[in-house]
Amino acid sequence: MSDVGVDESLLKSVAVQVATDAAELVREAWEGMAAGRSVAVGTKSADTDVVTAVDHESERLVRDRLAALRPGEPVLGEEGGGTAGDGVTWVVDPIDGTVNFLYGLPWFAVSVAAQIAGESVAGAVVEPASGRVWSAARGQGAFLDGRRLAVSAPSRLELTLVGTGFAYSAERRTRQSRFAASLLGQVRDIRRNGAASLDLCAVAAGWLDAYVEHGLHRWDWAAGALIAAEAGAEVLLPGSAPELGTDATYAAAPSVAEPLRKVLADCGAAEV
């Protein structure tokens, strides 16, 4: 049921508009880099955890657009921080997949979601390189460029394609590699694409049958998890599945969600 006074369709439209505007800024910068222009690059938690001037510019644009379109509503962003409010809070990843962006790999996105009491009610994930627009509003389905999405239906685990990701910490990546090695023998294959929001969207589209990753932040999953859920995926957010680890994010087609969840636990997901 919608919260009183909240129009999820309107919030989705705002998310799409703002994410599309930011994606255009990011696309122009990406094409400029391909043409030889440089971009300032810094690091955060590790030397491999990069942030660019374009990340900051994208988030500033998103904040400015939201201030104009939804004045007074707080924003929680990857680069600028922030805290949730009592009503709608906007959760922003100005470039999800910054390493891909820097390397020229066209699998990165701008993610914008509206949350109420920590629950995503509308969101958009826009790909600067391709222009694809993923979107969803609570209870209204998920869409890619206006086409309704539905998850896949693999018949058994051996035919299940699983997406995942790895941490910036070398120590944790080592644990994750052991987990992935154990899982590989029980599923079709594993994909590691480097942008959590798009991996969750890929589950929504049936491009992946499932996705699991540890250590994501709210801005990584806020829009993508809603899109996956609205396409029919079983979605578990950090803190809701201790057998997978306290910081695990999980999305899977219903046909394999429960057996895969057990296999992930057996493979040591909680120890990652």
Automatic annotation (TrEMBL):
Keywords: Hydrolase, Magnesium, Metal-binding
Needed cofactors: Mg(2+)
GO molecular function: histidinol-phosphatase activity; inositol monophosphate 1-phosphatase activity; metal ion binding
One GO term (biological process): inositol metabolic process
Residues bound to Mg(2+) 2: 93, 220
Enzyme superclass (EC): hydrolase
A Pfam family of this chain: Inositol_P
Reaction catalyzed: a myo-inositol phosphate + H2O = myo-inositol + phosphate; L-histidinol phosphate + H2O = L-histidinol + phosphate
Pathway annotation from the record: Amino-acid biosynthesis; L-histidine biosynthesis; L-histidine from 5-phospho-alpha-D-ribose 1-diphosphate: step 8/9
Binding-site residues, Mg(2+) 1: 78, 95-96
Domain of life assignment: Bacteria
Enzyme Commission number(s) from the entry: 3.1.3.25
Family of the protein in this entry: Belongs to the inositol monophosphatase superfamily.
UniProt function note: Catalyzes the dephosphorylation of histidinol-phosphate to histidinol, the direct precursor of histidine.
Protein name as catalogued: Inositol-1-monophosphatase
Species name: Amycolatopsis pretoriensis
